[in-house]
Every structure is written in C-alpha cells, then in structure tokens.
C-alpha cells in the first residue's frame, strides 16, 4: 500500500423517522459488505460498502496495516467525530482454518466504509467517505416475526466435552497451565435472512439491553452475528475503560462459587498487568459486580485508567486480546492447547470486534455469544473456563446456558 488516499467526509442530518436498521437492509445495499452495531442507549451504526479494506492473517501484518490506517486518520481534515476504522478478527489469527465453516471469512479484516448511518443518542446522521451525499429513499422493511424453527444438525456432544475437560484438567495438573477456556459448537438448520436478522436485532435490544448486538455481512451470504456483554476496551481522549467479565453461574444461585471468583480474578489481574505498560491512575473496583443476562449471571469488574501520551487504540487491541476470559492463563500456553483440544475452528467467535473514530476514540468488544450464518445453517459457539476445581456436569450446564442467549432470541423465548 504505497498510495495514501485523502478522505473527505460529507454529512447530512437525517429525519427522526429514519430507521438505521431500514437503511442497513435497503435493496440497494444488499450486494455490498456491511456491518451493523447497536449499543443501546449509546450508538447504533450501519457501516455500508468499502471505501478501503484490508485483510490480515498475522499480528505482523496487522501492525503494518495499522500504521497505514493511522496515517490516513491523521490526514483527515474534518471536525466531524465519527467511527471510521472498523476492525474484527478471529480468536487466533495465526492458525490456519480447520474446516469449511469459516472458509469465506478472512482471519482478520480492517476497513473504512463508504457510507455510515449513525444514531447517536437519538440524533441521526448519514456520513459518506469521498462520496456525494445521495441518500436513497429509505423504505420501511417488513419487521414481522419470521416463522421458522431451529433444527439441530450436530453439536459438540456431552461425551466429547467431558473428554476435553478431563484433558484440560490433566494439563493443568501436569503443566504451568492454571486455566483454559474450551468451547463447544452447535449447528442448526436455519435461514438467517433479512427478516431473521431484523428480528434478531430487535429481540437482542429487548432481551439484552446491556449488550452490544452486531452483524457483519460478508456479501457472499455468510453473516457473522452475536450479542455480547463483554467490553474489551473503550477509549475517549486519554481515558481508558475495560471490563473483566468471567465467572458464570445460574441466576437462581445467590452468589458465585469460589471457583467462579478465582476464574474472575485471573481476568482482572491479567488486564491490570497489561494496561500497566501504557497507563497511569489505574482504578479497579474492589469487589466484582454482577450482570444478569436472563438465566445466567456474570461477575463483572470495571477497570479504568488514564493513557500515557502516544498510546493509541490500534496498539491496544492485540495487547489486551485475548484475556483469560476467552483463552486462559498463562495466555500462550492456553492458546496452544486450545488449538489441540478443540476440533472445530472458532473463527471470529471470541475474537475482538469494534471501531476507532476519527479522533482515536474507540469501542471494542469480545465477540462471545456469537456465530456465523452460512448456506441456510447457523453455527454457534459457547465456551467455559476450566480450572483444577471444574466439575464436568457444571461446565456442561454453563455452556448450555450460554448457547441459550442466542437460541432464546431466535426462538422468541
């Protein structure tokens, strides 16, 4: 990439009756790659078509690309502050795909859209990048509930998951590994068409208003989708915010077990250690709070700090990812063993996903409670943190609760 494009941002305020969802699903945008993001109460985004995009399959490639995209941001001559660079990747960008589920999806993607529809705190705007404002006549999309059932095709069985847990506990006993996160996969027959996607967005906002809902349409029919409670990090100016979310228990239970508290502490300490390299005035909640997501509850600890001068979000993504919440501890040992223990490819499940705006503010999530729609099927994933105290039946039940986050939405439960 030797040429450096000059970006001109055009802007138009939209009428209040314009729906960002309707804009996203307009016929004129059906054959273009696009990304939808909804953080209720904060911002709703439809990033459509690609002004500039790049793929990466290693950390080295990402670092090179991030330098290029940073130069583009620095050259922007505009007072408008909007999400500009969108980034998402696989949980582990350095390994090759194991099967065909993710065959049409790059290990990592970074892009600047041509069109950006945004609803921020009730104010709606259309932004274009080097495109004239030529707003299409936004037609209302049919939002009636889809009438179809999920049909289970295959899954990581209880027997196979128990075997993975036994192997994990043996590794913890015999090596320096203290925690490893292993995931299950389920495949259902289901048409994740426009009607189903619209319904998914609406149901997620209603059932899980504290979570971020996302869709990433790859244009060829594959759609990555999810509703995640987990913030990897957010930045605004020199202010940094992250959350340790780990330790899951049934909402009927009054409090977390010692095992869940220990698992949670791994994540808190890991994030604090990582941010110490680029921050000061670190402020961590002394006691974890809880976040209730229907049938299950997570432990959550907020971590705040100020960023040292010269620190930017591009550098933080793979400094923080993956945390022990989705990998384990120590990280490198856990990642190596996950690749051996899991027979499926996680793809973008549990990877980082988010955006950086034109002023270097950012918002990145961990893509848990997610899956991919492909060829009239959906493949969804759920993981559990295994420690020496883990009980196989409890871990299996926890994975079922996590699957239920997406299944309950699709089944209108």
Describe this structure in words.
The chain has 413 residues and is α+β, with helices and mostly antiparallel strands. The chain contains 8 helices and 20 strands. The chain has a 20-stranded antiparallel sheet that branches. Strand 14 and strand 15 (296-307) form a beta hairpin. It is globular and about 60 Å long. The N and C termini lie far apart (49 Å). The model has no long low-confidence stretch (mean pLDDT 93).
Concise synopsis of the structure shown:
This protein is an alpha+beta fold.
Instruction: Please describe the biggest sheet, giving its number of strands, its sense, and whether it closes into a barrel.
Output: 20 strands, antiparallel
Helical amount = 25-40%
Separation of the first and last Cα atoms: 49 Å
The Rg value, from CA coordinates, equals 21 Å
Indicate the overall shape.
globular
Written as H for each helix and E for each strand, in order along the chain, the element string is EHEEHEEEEHEHEEEEHEEEHEHEEEEH
Number of helices: 8
- What is the oligomeric state here? single chain
**Overall mean confidence score, pLDDT:** 93
* Poorly predicted runs: none
Question: Count of DSSP E strands?
Answer: 20
